[in-house]
Amino acid sequence: MPLAVANLGAWLIRGRPLSLERPVLVGVLNVTPDSFSDGGRFHGAGPALARARQLVTDGARILDIGGESTRPGSAGISVDEELARVLPVLRAVKAELDVLVSVDTRKAAVARVVLAGGADVINDVSALGDPEMAATVADSDAALVLMHIRGTPATMQSLATYGDVAAEVAAELEPRVAMAVAAGVGAERIVVDPGIGFAKTTEQNLELIARLDVVAGVLGRPVLLGPSRKAFIGALLGGVGAHARDAGTVGACVAGLARGARIFRVHEVRAAREALEVADAIFRTEAAWGR
Ligand code: HH2
């Protein structure tokens, strides 16, 4: 069976399985003043809600609300500031739209409040860097994304030294999955993410996507991929800016699908969803031929 269809199944979110039979799109909803590609554009509940409606219309099954930029070199913000950005948008989205909501946070104190406020997924780009995070998620029935990073956004780019990046990312994520499970987060609630652009060079990002099956295979959990608009795409396309990277993003997603990714975090959902659905249908046909 080709890799592309080897990792089917479901992701358990708030007691309900989200099928991964078809690729799942996660729409990025950054409510920050300073995110690298869309900082300031959807800051505040009004613009954020309009963006959320568009992402759902385009086919996002999950919206990932982020209040703190994690771009290389960025400094953190306080719990209060993060909640002031995220909570009004979470409430507005939940009140109006029938969509799962993920909150992109590294802080257990933020997670506790948004989980009480109805968040369905905690997307932790520090993979349990906060020692309280695992127990906080375990106390709910929400799902958890564990993303690979080394250091923090402020320090990560100086830590991009690997022998075998795919094997090391898998090995470094494995104990984090074990920690979450030991704290009481059921394995079926967890997905893993290789952390494209987090403590990785352009070559390492390419290698990680090319060998994504290593990450999926070692961990046995569904893989989420987040290449959207990242610097390695700009580098490959002659230095284009973040807004000229959406077609390149689609290419990275389709390549990831061919290596087992089932969940894709992107800024522009429609093109990625359509490309992934077509590619997935072709890979299924390939599987039916027994190749
Ligand atoms: N990338 C970013 C943020 N959160 N979460 C997961 N699981 N995977 C990713 O690859 C990922 C992520 C960075 O992108 P963006 O949100 O666009 O930028 P910023 O961190 O500047 O807000």
Question: What would you say about this model in short?
Answer:
The chain is of the alpha/beta class. It contains ten helices and ten strands.
Structure description:
The protein is of the alpha/beta class. The protein has a single domain, classed as Dihydropteroate synthase-like (TIM Barrel, Alpha-Beta Barrel). 42% of the residues lie in helices and 15% in strands. The chain has helices at residues 45-57, 79-96, 108-116, 133-138, 165-183, 202-210, 212-219, 231-236, 246-258, 269-288; strands spanning 10-13, 16-19, 24-30, 62-66, 100-104, 121-124, 143-147, 190-193, 224-225, 263-266. Helix 1 crosses helix 2 and helix 5 (165-183) packs parallel to helix 7 (212-219). The protein is globular. 49% of the residues are buried. Bound molecules: 6-hydroxymethylpterin-diphosphate. The site of 6-hydroxymethylpterin-diphosphate (HH2) has 21 residues, from strand 3 and strand 7.
Please summarize the sheet with the most strands: 8 strands, parallel
- Top CATH class: Alpha Beta
**What name is given to the CATH topology?**
TIM Barrel
| String of helices and strands | EEEHEHEHEHEHEHHEHHEH
* DSSP strand content: 15-25%
Classify the helix fraction into a percent range.
Answer: 40-55%
Kindly state the number of beta strands.
10
By CATH, the superfamily comes out as Dihydropteroate synthase-like
Helical/strand content category:
alpha/beta
CA radius of gyration: 17 Å
The largest sheet has its strands arranged as 8-7-6-5-4-3-10-9
* CATH 2nd-level architecture: Alpha-Beta Barrel
Shape: globular
